[in-house]
# Entry
Amino acid sequence: MKYNKTAMTKLINEHRELHDELKRIKKDMGLEKNLAIKALYHSAVAEEGPYMKEYQELERNQ
# Structure
C-alpha cells in the first residue's frame, strides 16, 4: 500500500479525530501540512493501522 495524498486528505476530512491529530502533529512537531499528513498516514493507516481499511476503500474509489 502506498501513500496517496488525495485519499489521505479525504480520510482526514471524514474523521474529526484525524483532523485534530493532524493539527496536534503540526503544532507539536513543527511540521508543514504535507509532512504532517504523511506522518499521520504512517501512524493511523500504514501497517494495519485503525484506518487502513477505510483508506484502501477511498483509494479504490478514485
About this structure: The chain has a mean pLDDT of 95. The radius of gyration is 11 Å.
